[in-house]
Write a structure and sequence with these properties.
Layout (H helix, E strand, L loop, with lengths): L14 H27 L4 H24 L1 H6 L6 H4 L4 H19 L4 H18 L9 H9 L1 H14 L5 H21 L10 H5 L1 H20 L6 H22 L5 H23 L1
C-alpha cells in the first residue's frame, strides 16, 4: 500500500499522545476486563498477567492491522490521532508491527494452556477478518462486531478453567455476557463520529436505528455489570459512574450532538470502569 499523505494534511501530534491513543482501547477494555475478572474471582496472579500480555498483544495486532487497512478512510475522517495519518509510521510499517505483536501474543499464551492459546488464535483470525478486504467483517457493522466480540463470551469461561479446572458457576456466565455486550457497545458507538466512512453502523442502518442498537447493547452491559456488584456500596458507585458515562454518550448520539472529542472523554470513563472495580475489590 503506497499511499502518501498530502503535505497540507500532515499533522504531527506528540508521539506519546499517539502511542496513548493506540494503546487506550487495549488497556481500557481488554486488560481492564481481565483484571476485573481476576479481582472478582480472587485470581490476581502472575499467570493472569501473562494472559493479559498475550491478549493485549493480539488486540493490538488487530488495531494496527486495521489502521493499515483503513488508511484511506482514516484520511477522509481526518484521524490525526492515528500514527499512519500523522506520518509517524507508513501503512506498511503498521502492518509489519501488527504481525510482530501477533507473534508475541501467541507466544505468551503458549505459556498458559491450550484453551487460551486456541482462543487467542480464534481472536486473531476474527480481528484479521474484521479488517481484511477479503472478508471485511467491519462492513456488516453490528453483526461483524458481535462476531469479533464472541471471543469475550469464552474468555472468562476459559480463564475459569485455567484457575479452577472444569468448574462452571453462574457468575462466570454473567461476566462473559457483560464483557460481550460492553465490547459490542464500544464498537457500535464509535461509528457515530466516523461519518466519512464508506459504510458503518450509522451509515448503513440510519441514525435512529443505529442509536437504538447502541442503547440496547449499553443497557445489557449495565444490567449485567449490576449483577457483579457483590452488594458493595463502593462498587455501586462504580456502576453509577459507568451508567452516567453511557447515558451522556447515548443522549448525545441519539440527539446528533456527538463529536469525537466528547465521545473520547466519555469512552475514557468506560475504560476507567474495570480499573475502579479492580481497585475497590483489591484495596
Amino acid at each position: 500500500m503506497n499511499i502518501t499523505v498530502p503535505s497540507h494534511r500532515i499533522y504531527k501530534p506528540n508521539l506519546i499522545y499517539l502511542i496513548y491513543k493506540r494503546l487506550r482501547p487495549a488497556f481500557g477494555f481488554l486488560i481492564g476486563s481481565i483484571l476485573m475478572y481476576g479481582a472478582y474471582t480472587g485470581n490476581v496472579t502472575s499467570m493472569l498477567l501473562v494472559v493479559c500480555f498475550g491478549f493485549v498483544c493480539i488486540h493490538l495486532f488487530g488495531d494496527c492491522y486495521n489502521d493499515c487497512q483503513d488508511f484511506e478512510e482514516d484520511l477522509k475522517n481526518e484521524r490525526t490521532d492515528k500514527m499512519t495519518i500523522s506520518g509517524m509510521l507508513s501503512a506498511k510499517d503498521m502492518r509489519n508491527l501488527s504481525f510482530l505483536l501477533l507473534i508475541l501474543g501467541l507466544i505468551a499464551l503458549g505459556f498458559t494452556n491450550l484453551l487460551l492459546l486456541a482462543l487467542g488464535c480464534y481472536y486473531a483470525i476474527l480481528l484479521w477478518a474484521y479488517s481484511t478486504p477479503l472478508i471485511r467483517l467491519k462492513k456488516y457493522n453490528v453483526f461483524g462486531y458481535a462476531i469479533v466480540g464472541s471471543t469475550f463470551l469464552f474468555l472468562p469461561l476459559f480463564l475459569n478453567f485455567l484457575f479452577h479446572g472444569i468448574y462452571l458457576i453462574e457468575d462466570t456466565i454473567v461476566f462473559s455476557i457483560f464483557c460481550f455486550t460492553q465490547y459490542t457497545y464500544i464498537l457500535c458507538q464509535k461509528d457515530s463520529t466516523d461519518i466519512k466512512d464508506e459504510t458503518n453502523l450509522f451509515l448503513a442502518r440510519g441514525w435512529k436505528k443505529a442509536s437504538l442498537i447502541c442503547i440496547l447493547s449499553a443497557s445489557l452491559a449495565v444490567i449485567f455489570l449490576l449483577k457483579l456488584i457483590l452488594f458493595c456500596p463502593l462498587l455501586l458507585l462504580v456502576w453509577i459512574f459507568n451508567l452516567i458515562s453511557k447515558v451522556l454518550n447515548l443522549s448525545a448520539i441519539y440527539n446528533k450532538k456527538i463529536c469525537r472529542d466528547l465521545r473520547g472523554k466519555l469512552i475514557t470513563m468506560e475504560f476507567l470502569t474495570p480499573y475502579l472495580y479492580f481497585l475497590v475489590i483489591t484495596l
